Amino acid sequence: MNYLSLIYISLFLSTPAWTDQITLTLEMRDPQRSYRAGERAYASLMLEGLDLENESENNLHAFEDLNSGFQIDLKKAGDMEIGPVAITLNNKRILSNTLKLTVLPAWDGTDTYLFKVDKNQITHEELFTLTLEIWTKHYLQTSIRTKRDDELFSYQAGGSGNSSETLADGSSQRYISYHWQIKPTKTGRFALSEELFQNLPEWIEVPEFSVDVLPKTEETP
Fold first, then answer.
1. What are the start-end ranges of the H helices in the chain?
2. How is the beta sheet containing 172-184 ordered, strand by strand?
3. What is the pLDDT of residues 136-177, one digit of tens each?
4. Which CATH architecture describes the domain 2-104?
């Protein structure tokens, strides 16, 4: 499945632009989010590197930094590609990158959650990001947190967000996400467990997976 592959944008500038220095980048608005069939995803297209002599500021200002957005209706689960997007700048065609996205099965209306990490293996003193995503119809009464003081890891930073969405079939859902940056204090296998969290609802079970923490290698002088 491929989206945005047939979008072409033509820009004709009255002042020269060096197209070999221009980058066209396509990216998801929320790259850490997991998407389900029936939801809407949003991608951004950023055009950078225009070298303009601003002889006519009113006419050229909009093209110095072009940032466009796209809404994508995710109709079914599976792997999909987004892009590439092509623009024509002073009669020269420029292509963006292609995004790959795995769409999860449609939400069934029950409380559902997903744990994931951005790295399965790190070296000692490196960070990894732990993410918890929740799909529900309800508000959580308390905020889920990780312990800040533990002999196995140090908590570096984190954040959370939530949104209410109307799906393609007209039903509504609440999406909640938590992100924690974790720095293990020891080498070996850092296992995820319920003991790492505070205020974790009873219906959320922490899966069995881990991050391998390798010894830090000495750099050759």
1. 57-64
2. 112-117, 128-136, 172-184, 153-166
3. 988 777 788 887 666 677 766 777 888 877 766 667 788 999
4. Sandwich (2.60)
Distance of CA 86 to the CA centre of its chain: 22
Domains of the chain, by residue range, sit at 2-104, 112-214
* Beta carbons of 166 and 172 less than 8 angstroms apart: yes
Q: Is the bond leading into 84 cis (omega within 30 degrees of zero)? A: yes
Buried b (16+ CB within 10 A) or exposed e, 179-206: bbbbbbeeeeebebeeebbeebbeebeb
Alpha carbon distance 114, 117 (integer Å):
10
- Edge-to-edge strand list for the sheet holding 66-73: 23-28, 40-48, 66-73
Helices (H) and strands (E) in the chain, counts: 1, 19
Residue pair 101/73 in contact by the 8 Å Cβ criterion: no
Q: How far apart are CA 90 and CA 120, in angstroms?
A: 45
Smallest CA-to-CA distance from 204 within 119, 140, 155 is with 140
Distance, CA of 151 to CA of 155 (rounded, Å): 11
- Give the C-alpha separation, 71 to 69, whole Å: 7
pLDDT tens-place string over residues 12-63: 444 455 556 778 888 898 888 999 998 888 888 887 776 544 443 433 333 4
Residues in the chain, total: 221
- pTM > 0.70: yes
Tell me the backbone φ, ψ of residue 62, rounded to 5 degrees: -70, -20
